[in-house]
Amino acid sequence: MNANDKKVLENLVKSYVAVYPIKDSFKKDYFNYPIEKINEVINNLFEEIQSKATAKKSKPKSKFKVPEVEKMSTKEEAKDYYLNNMIYDRTSSEAKKKLIDFYLKEDLKKIYSLLNEKKASNNLNKTDLLNQIDLYFDNIDRAKKF
Predict the structure, then answer these.
(1) Taking the CB of residue 108, how many other CB atoms lie within 10 A of it?
(2) Which positions ≥6 away from 75 have C-beta within 8 Å?
(3) Which pLDDT tens digits describe the chain residue by residue (146 residues)?
């Protein structure tokens, strides 16, 4: 609820309270609740919204899904992580899809950036990022064979 919504509710309550003394001039079902009940409900609503807002602010959300990736800071750590956790059967599109679904784009961008020592383009999707990471290791293997 934003500040404008809060003002609207407060104005509605003020109007209700102002007109309540002459409630007999209106239909019976217009004023079903006493002023105390209205104030109690509104206060509870504001408290609930405030507590939810506080709870959201108190836990910082990481943009990474995998904590190990978030902690990586060197090319060697990225290589080790890839070799220990991201090897999959490249002939199986299902295995590749499973791996892509496991990681967030930010995870793959960080691994890519550490390996290539340059920032990953925002235009790359998760499949492109994984392909580029795989290509990095393919090129290393090819160079070793010479």
Answers:
(1) 25
(2) 114, 115, 117
(3) 777 888 888 888 889 889 989 988 888 888 888 989 988 988 888 888 888 776 665 555 667 788 899 899 999 999 999 999 999 999 999 999 999 999 999 999 999 999 999 999 999 999 999 999 999 999 999 999 88
Helix, strand, coil % (nearest 5) of the chain?
A: 75, 0, 25
Residue type at position 104: L
Q: How many CB atoms lie within 10 A of CB 60?
A: 6
HEC assignment per residue over 59-106: CCCCCCCCHHHHHCCCHHHHHHHHHHHCCCCCCCHHHHHHHHHHCCHH
CA distance 48 to 123: 40
Residues in the chain: 146
Q: How far, in Å, CA of 48 to CA of 50, rounded?
A: 5
C-alpha closest to that of 141 among 83, 84, 98: 83
Three-state SS at 142: helix
